[in-house]
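Hi Q.,

Before the meeting this afternoon, I wanted you to have the nicotinamide-adenine-dinucleotide prediction in hand. No need to reply - just skim if you have a minute. The sequence and ligand are here:
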Amino acid sequence: MKILVTGGAGFIGSHVVDAYVAIGHEVLIVDNLSTGQRANLNPKAKFIECDIVDQKKIQKIILEEKPDAINHHAAHIQVGYSVKNPQFDAQNNIIGLLNIMEAAKKAGVKRVVMAATGGAMYGNKKTPFTEQMKEQPLSPYGISKRAGELYLNYYHEIHQIHYVSLRYSNVYGPRQNSHGESGVIAIFLEALGEGKPAIINGNGKHTRDYIYVSDVVMANVLALETYFVGELNIGTGIETSTNEVFDKLVSELGIDMPREYGPERIGEQVTSSLDASKAREILDWHVRINFDEGVKRTVAWFKNKA
Ligand SMILES: NC(=O)c1ccc[n+]([C@@H]2O[C@H](COP(=O)([O-])OP(=O)(O)OC[C@H]3O[C@@H](n4cnc5c(N)ncnc54)[C@H](O)[C@@H]3O)[C@@H](O)[C@H]2O)c1
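Predicted structure with the ligand bound:
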């Protein structure tokens, strides 16, 4: 299959590219390198530097390349910045997607897999969140991801483009950038690696559902073949507190660093985890890497990189 991966120079997208290339797919990457890095680019994939907001350029690429499928990972991912600048978020995450889908329609693209969010999709409901719960995104980022799903549903119903939206929990692993705000593992690792204190926002009792990147990649592989159309949660269902994350990293790095607390971030969700039983049933997708193993691998990569 010929697959266009948007955001393929980024953290998750680059791992998806590696897996698609390893399976034998022909892969084309489109990325504007805003947060992605050239070092992440798979040499066996073709790379075109392009901003998906540039309608003419992205349309030209899709019409010329005519991929069979599009895996859409390019996005603005900072929830806090989306609150400060919802127009910027919508420009990238809604208009960018529409630029891709309008071109996909013209080029006869058959299927799309999109990276969505589980953590920012359901609001402050009781955990674990299921796909049956009413969506209640409480940030412009969550809203733009939900809008993207509604558009994909439109392109499916009216223009027969198959889609799967994968609603990830908190993804972590090698290549994660510490400059974002959601990758607490990458942020803590960067600080601790430099011998600086890693500040825990609030009392550290907030929980998140941490999923290792290779498990997310597997969902992207399975989503290419499925008959299913719609939204699927991709998470472990296990809640880990920020205090536990900190302690685990300190112990894995073999350093002695006390916990340090800072002010709580306003509007921060207290708990978050995803029920992924639908993905298990439909995709036969399973979590393979538990938190202990995932942290071990991430710390090993981090030490190697430093
Ligand atoms: N990391 C997580 O925990 C998580 C959780 C849920 C969903 N997601 C989604 O997964 C996807 C990838 O996230 P990530 O964590 O790998 O972040 P990332 O920042 O590493 O990857 C995003 C990539 O998209 C590129 N990009 C951004 N805007 C672009 C634009 N306008 N045109 C072209 N390229 C553009 C960036 O350069 C980068 O390579 C995003 O859609 C994100 O919303 C991530």
